[in-house]
Give the backbone structure.
Amino acid sequence: MHRLTNRQILLGITGGIAAYKSAELTRLLKKAGADVRVVMTPAATEFITPLTLQALSGHPVHLQLLDPEAEAGMGHIELARWADHILIAPASADFIARCAAGMGNDLLTTLCLASDAQISLAPAMNQAMWRDSHTQANIEALRVAGFNIWGPDAGEQACGDTGPGRMLEPTDLAERLAAEFDYLALSGKTVFITAGPTREPLDPVRFISNHSSGKMGYALAQAAVDAGAKVKLISGPVNLMPPERVDCVQIETAEQMLAASMEGLESCDLFIGAAAVADYRPVAIAEHKIKKGNEEIMELRLVKNPDIIATVAKHTHRPFTVGFAAETRDLIHYARDKLTRKNLDLVIANDVSVPGIGFNSNENQVTLVTADKATTLPQTSKRLLAKQLIDQIALQLKSKQA
Ligand code: PMT
């Protein structure tokens, strides 16, 4: 089921008594980490309410093709593109017939036409309707067109008949769906990543900060999502768009970054601190803009900020914890010092005195430092480096958990 983490599943529900089982199916898919959007045909709403599916999926249910309100949110073409997989469960004889005929006379059939995603159908109907030669011809046509046909099961039916036509159980459907996706290096893992600088305000218009652009942290977030993880990106102020499928929490100060890092930490498997956190903040924030006085020298009083990554590494539900070290000399020595002092599993050290790498550059060169090893990776783009780092970290995480 871990393969469903972060997958975007469009669940279509058509009119049939088995529609009640789609509530449990939605719950299972959500529990496995999938993002589920539900589309119901008008007949489906006679068997189960959209409100139930909305509560379980966490999103409004899509009901009509020509709905101005829904189109203003996520339009039907956008929804078709959004889906990694379309699962229609239950798929009624009528829906199967319309789909096989290539019709687009409601939202669900239109989505099937408009999407490039794999489509799977879980037929459910009376046994005689299933055996009917039209239905069998339609199913065969859809199979040839590349649709997965999952089920139906045989047994006692709601109408009193016995025979083939029962929808497969939700657990069976969820397992079949999971098997459609590859198992990736971080499938099923929840990853928190801090990125960018923090800003420590002096007054309403001034702050202390640094040159971190967030590029390293955002590249890591993208690589972690690509590796199958569910990612929370805790970001200081940067000029970057968060990667898709990432839950991005925007913060300004170190204290806010700490609070966002601790929230939900129990479910976090891997924490990566790529942010450049201000070590100190002003003791007090002036209520009004500080005016220029006559003095030539102005002194600021600063107080130590909490150490976010060290706090995470002390937590009872401690995730695998990876820090960065931005150094200008004695790279390995200082990185190893951070490794032990902050109780980290791995430190990724970058020499920020080297031009073209580190802060606000598109490339980086890093050394992976553990208690007994230091491995330097060649200089490359932050995007490619992030992929290599995530692969390395996933291996270390796996061997630690084993
Ligand atoms: O954002 P970019 O422009 O792409 O640049 C990337 C980067 C250079 C910022 C990044 O690669 C990097 O090195 N980040 C850490 C920078 C840093 O400030 O390191 P540090 O030596 O101060 O801190 C060591 C570790 O403790 C880091 O994981 C840091 O996130 C963490 N820390 C530090 C202080 C603090 N109060 N809380 C923390 O969690």
Summary: The mean pLDDT is 95. The longest strand covers residues 320-327. The domain at 2-179 is CATH 3.40.50.1950 (Rossmann fold). Residues 194, 196, 212-217, 254, 273-277, 279, 305, 307-309, 323-326, 338, 350, 352, 358-360 surround PMT (CB under 6 Å).
